[in-house]
Write a structure and sequence with these properties.
four-stranded mixed sheet; 10 strands; 2 domains; flat; single chain; about 180 residues; four-stranded antiparallel sheet; mainly beta
């Protein structure tokens, strides 16, 4: 995140299992604390005005569409602007939890709400790539499957980004041409 006028680095966002922010400019700490309390989920600062007084903030959630807020830095108050139209009909149908398997492959498991997870049919959803990854949050296709009674496992296999260079390079020479 860079200042809208000075173009100086202010914060860096890392996506591991969930989104994490590291502040470079510590004067933003109170704003980041306020923004993190507005809504559940991982927040992203989508836009800022040139005066750096109003931020547009989106929240990635795992149980519904993305909410967007206008955050006023002076008052530290937020106003809900809208929800993304994606997934409105599937809202609150399932949940995700971060998972690390014993084979050191990372992924997310999504389960239907109100169903005993003991004997569910499982769909394995493999992302494209190899240089990509699935991240925590709402996914229309996954929610659609969970809404119909399937457990869905999204695996970030060797070669997926976001887990370090060793994990990324572990998939070298294992891909079909």
């Amino acid at each position: 995140m860079t200042h809208p006028r000075k173009h100086t680095l202010e914060a860096v966002q890392f996506v591991r299992e969930r989104s994490e922010w590291t502040l470079i400019d510590k004067s933003l700490q109170a704003d980041f604390d306020s923004v993190s309390q507005i809504h559940d989920g991982d927040f992203y600062i989508v836009s800022r005005d040139l005066a750096d007084q109003i931020w547009i903030v989106a929240y990635s959630v795992d149980d519904g569409p993305t909410p967007f807020y206008a955050y006023d830095r002076a008052s530290r108050k937020a106003t809900l602007l809208c929800f993304s139209p994606t997934g409105q009909h599937l809202r609150n149908t399932s949940y995700q939890r971060c998972n690390q398997s014993h084979s050191r492959r990372y992924g997310d498991l999504t389960l239907p709400v109100g169903v005993d997870p003991g004997r569910l049919p499982l769909v394995l959803e493999v992302h494209g790539g190899p240089w990509g990854r699935d991240t925590w949050g709402f996914d229309n296709q996954v929610e659609w499957l969970a809404n119909r009674g399937y457990a869905v496992l999204q695996i970030n296999f060797r070669g997926s980004t976001g887990y370090g260079k060793d994990y990324l390079n572990a998939g070298d020479r294992e891909w079909a041409s």
